Each structure stands twice: as structure tokens, then as C-alpha cells.
Amino acid sequence: MIPQFPLLNVTDVVFDEILSQLELNEIFNLSICSLKTADIVRCHLRKSIRYPLFVDTKEKNGITFGFIREKERVNMMSIRHEELYTNQKEFEEVNIKAMKLNVCKYQDHYSFFVYPEDEPDAFSLVLSHIADLFREYIKILYCNSPWMMSCIGLQNSGSLWMTYAGGDECEEFVKLSDYELETSIKTGGLQLCSYLSKDYNFALTREYEYVRVERAPEARSYDVLDVAVRSKEVVFDQSDLVSKSLNNIFKIWLENRIDRLKFLSIRMKSYKEFLAFIGMEHRISDTTEEVNYKSYTGELYQLSPGKRLRRDDGVIASFSYDPNTQILNFGVVDVVN
Fold first, then answer.
1. Which residue has the higher pLDDT, 170 or 225?
2. Per-residue pLDDT at 286 exceeds 70
3. In whole angstroms, what is the distance from residue 94 CA to residue 113 CA?
4. If DSSP codes are grouped into helix, strand and coil, which group holds residue 287?
């Protein structure tokens, strides 16, 4: 017989120490033992949690909740469709928001099984429990369908830190405007992971801290500008840009028409320096000082040694081109009075 530990009978000091030694997924598992346990755990979680919470809705037959620890995902709970259930799984009864549910082990976490039509209610139930328990809302969303941003927006008055939209497995064509509906939760960062065709409309209606476009090999300068006009940081991992296209972007920046933009990284189709500098040679100077730009996501991008571009209002941008990767990085670094 395994001896039982009277966890709920220990002093507050001891309980606080126990919680401090547990990971978030272990705290979550403890909280669903009973309604009483959930209340006690919540009362003792006085400090803000260190790791951002995520929800992944990209899977065809399930939704996963968890957190990011040192750039690695740790799952806490998932919702699976009923057809995935096998008789070999043993159920355990838990309590979520005063509702008794049967869950079972699924890989490295607990999961409960629902019919597809019940998935929205189950999603809201788990999302609400996580928010109440940790006093934090979901910060990262992985989704194929923009309707998930509306689902979260109905329960969360704040904003997401990052949304990863689409991917290889996403077969549905989604317009960018569908992520910006009135009911959709706002997101500081937006990463578009699906292939985007030549005629894709990149015009934004909301402002962003960071927008990354993974696969748009036919993107032109006007596509980049559509994103740059409302974003502080813009990354295009693929593009159809050549030196003349870059020259156009530089000119528009010099005219203060994309003043919100602080950083731009583009993988060029081709690059010839003299073509990129036409008409602005007198504004460009060499720099040997090493300058890096730390992005919204924490990545470091090298801006120089390279070139400097000075605007009439004294704002200076540094930029450098790496012929090995074909990537050009451009970032605002200084204001000279």
C-alpha cells in the first residue's frame, strides 16, 4: 500500500515551498484534483508565473494547452476528439470549474475526449480554468484558422504576445484581414507560416510590434511596404526583391512614410549595391562599428559593419547585406540632433 501524504493539511509555509518546487504542468495537475484543491492552489500562487502560456489549435483532432520553458513546449492538457479514444486508456475523474470530467494519460499529459461539436465548450472551460489558476492569459497561439482568435478574444480582454498562423499542414486559404476582425484578440506579433502567393494582400488594419512572413517567394516591395507601414519590425524569410525594389523602400523611409518601422530583414532575390543606392549616394556612409539589433522575439540581427543611411530629420539607420545568406538587415539605430 502506497502511503498518502496529507498535502492539504500542511501549513501555509510548507505548502508554498511545495508549490515553488513544482513545474506549471504539475501545479495544473494538482489543481484539477478537486474544486477545493484548485482554490487552495490558486490562493498560494501569489507570484506571476515565469513562462508564457500557449494554446495549439493546429492539430486536426485536438487542442493542446501548455507553456514555453527555455524555448521548449511543455504540455499541460489537451482536448481530443472521441474517435481517438482507445479502450486501453484508463480514466481518472478530475474537477475543472466545478465540472467533473473523465481524463486519461495522453503522451506526456492528461487529455479528455469530446465529440467535435462539443470542442468549443471544452476549449472555453480549460481556457477559463488556466486563466483563473495562474492569473495569466494565454500569450502564444498556434492556429490554422483565424476563428480561434475570436474564441480567445471573447474571454480575454488583453492581447497575445505572438500568433503563429498556418503552416505546411494548413490547406485552407486565409486572408490576412480574417485575423483582424473586430472580435479577434489583438496580438503583438504575427508570424505567417503558410505559403503565400503572388497576389496575396498584405495590407494591415492593426498595428503590430513584429510581423514575420515565412514563405512568400514572390513578395515585392509593395508587399513589404504594406506590412511595414503598421509594424515596428518586419521579417521576410523569402521574397522576390531585387536592388531596385530595395532602393524604393529606402526612398520611402527617407520620406518619413514608414516612420513606424524600426527594423527590416529580407532575404533578397538579388542584390547589387550600386543599384540599391541610386539617388541617395550622398546620404550613405560606411561604418565599421559592430551594431546588433535585438528583435521583439529576442533574436539578434547584425546591422553593421556595413552602411549607414541618414535622413533629413537626423534619424540614422544601419544596414548590412550577407551574400552567403542573401539577407539584408536594416534597423534604426540613432537620432542626431
1. 225
2. yes
3. 13
4. strand
